[in-house]
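Notebook p. 47: complex prediction with manganese (II) ion.
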Amino acid sequence: MMLTERQREREMGKPLFETKQEKSRLAYRLYLLSMINGIFLVFVYRASHVPGEGEDGRWAWIGLFGAELWFSIYWVFTQFRRWNRVYRQTFKDRLSQRYENELPIIDVFVCTADPTIEPPTMVINTVLSVMAYDYPPEKLNVYLSDDGGSDLTFYALLEASRFSKYWLPFCKKFQVEPRSPAAYFSATPEPLVNPSQAKEFLSIKKLYKEMVDRIETTSVLGKVSEEIIKEHQGFLEWGSGSNPRDHPTILQILIDGRDPNVVDMEGQRLPTLVYLAREKRPHHHHNFKAGAMNALIRVSSGLSNGQIIMNVDCDMFSNNSGSVRDALCFLMDEENGHQIAFVQFPQAFNNITKNDIYYNFLKVISQIEFPGLDGEGGPMYIGSGCFHRRDTLCGRKYSKEHITEWETQDNRKVDESIDELNERLKGFASCTYEENTEWGKEMGLKYGCPVEDVITGLSIQCRGWKSVFFSPKRKAFIGVAPTTLDQVLVQYKRWSEGNFQIFLSKYNPLLVGHGKIKVGLQMGYCSYCLWAPNCLATLYYVVIPSLCFLKGTALFPKISSPWLIPFAYVAISKYTYSLLEFLWCGGTVQGWWNNQRMWMFKRTTSYLFAFIDNLLKVFGFSKSTFVITTKVADQDVSQRYEQEMMEFGTSSPLFLILATIAMLNLFSLVGGVWVVIMSLQTTVMAPLSLQFVLCGIVVAINLPVYQGLFFRMDKGRMPSSIMFKAVFFALFACIVSLL
Ligand SMILES: O=c1ccn([C@@H]2O[C@H](COP(=O)(O)OP(=O)(O)O[C@H]3O[C@H](CO)[C@@H](O)[C@H](O)[C@H]3O)[C@@H](O)[C@H]2O)c(=O)[nH]1
Ligand SMILES: [Mn+2]
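Predicted complex, structure tokens below:
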């Protein structure tokens, strides 16, 4: 529908999106004020009651003071992401009224890296879901980057390109949601009401099943059969000697959307679909996902050159076909759009259990903290489900004067043959292309940091841009959350390591952000950058007071002392607040308790390793790595996950720390109580009661660890080698502290 110029102008007054501010409430401010008072009194007590020179527990006391000081400072940082929250809303109907014929070209990047832990079937479901966006297909381009360089993945994508000719029209005809076939078929029963729909549903489901069977048979075989190889010349690129770490660029345009004759079963045009495995050579560092993204940015620039780039991890399928339009409501808004560099959607997961034992869902982060950052100038870029302007991603600074002309035509060369095109594009993905360029520094995603996304987003914001966090009612993206404790802790190690690395680098938010982004946003960034150093204070808090309890050294006020009040107040109100917040976000009480456990586990293991690795990096002993999260699990592991049983299973050094802390607290608790009983005097207990409570809480939170160590028989239990070592170390620590 074309609007007349007048109608258009009338419409112009109305924005394409709306922002609601959630100002901090009075109750929250009172809470802040009272907490600050409480914390202050705790410090007064700590400073005025330090045990004298030579007295018992002087150093333990001073250390505890340090830990509390750290917690307080950190707590202040975390308030900045709560203070000023904003929630957004879009008007897609206005967008299509005004711009339906001038919608820009969109390039979607999907990254995968390993066909065993990221199965090709999962990858193509993500690809199909984004191909099926509610968007003009000739303006939509999907690129799959395969760092695994696997012909199995290529084969799956080839199958998907054929299946899309059935799937896309089906989705559009029946307004199907979600548009990942796997997710759709597993959630949707046969539509019985409409017989013609039912017929199509069944036939397309059959097609899908047959395709999956073929792909999975091939994956089980581990190689593509001769017959299939004959079907497409693309397979020839996998020569006999090619391996994932050493091969030339492989590039195949599976669907060429610019060709009006390439159509689906209903005669409608199709989005472009490209397979890319960038060149890999053993002596060239490939920079993990950031390297893959930069190759994609360049290759796509030579083909579709969309002004908007969206990227998803291979497990994050689109669950909402309207997301492209949602994002455009922000970026194309006449009033405010020109300042917005990227629109970040939250990450949701489809395998979260009721009480979310590993706190994967990040409820509080996506419902409170990111809206809070948004209020301060914009959320971080978190790597998946994010729409960028191409030019800001490539380093452009914000300027008020610059007006984006939305282009609706791509810039392909008309007289180029397919072979010439292929060669030109392949050059963009070669190992040497980036030599002596700004790629990985000022252009594209930054290299050298395990959280390439966060550091890239930060530098974009520091160039003057804003970002937006948008969480639509129907979730935009859904991925797979890790299902074992080890995977979760390793993932957090990567994140906290990367975040802390940013803090230690010249990209420290307080330095680069100074004068460029709001103080609130700098503090917000710091609250994540400083995850890792939390390990020190936390380790101290869960070890020393317990050992001192065993020994009978008091570190807290007596139960009858008025000084107990600020301690109790701070602890109780902080945890009550966090519980209420968690429940408000839709969590359960058990889920909150699980989150507290994960909070402690992460801080004592992932963050500790991240902290140490960063120090080693500073001294040049260690290099960045990227451990890819597994997206599949064995049947019995999945079953235990469903039952919310903690999965230990491997003898990871992370678990040794967990088990040692758990045992140490158990011994301290039992030993300390034993001493009190033996002395037959309740007065002994009075000065130690807070330590008794603290130690008791640590033991309670560790119940799944004791179960894993002593009471479980399944494969997910703690390995006995860990048990012996943990008992030994814990006993050793107890004995040493008693000496
Ligand atoms: O060398 C590599 C390594 C990883 N990936 C891809 O990167 C994505 C993210 O990897 P994953 O193991 O799933 O990590 P997550 O911890 O789930 O990822 C989060 O954190 C990462 C930064 O640590 C971001 O890059 C991701 O976008 C963000 O979702 C996946 O699609 C991988 O295939 C590559 O393309 N090349
Ligand atoms: Mn992931």
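Notes: Residues 24-83+518-525+539-597+628-738 form one domain. The mean pLDDT is 94.
Next step: compare against the earlier run before touching the bench.
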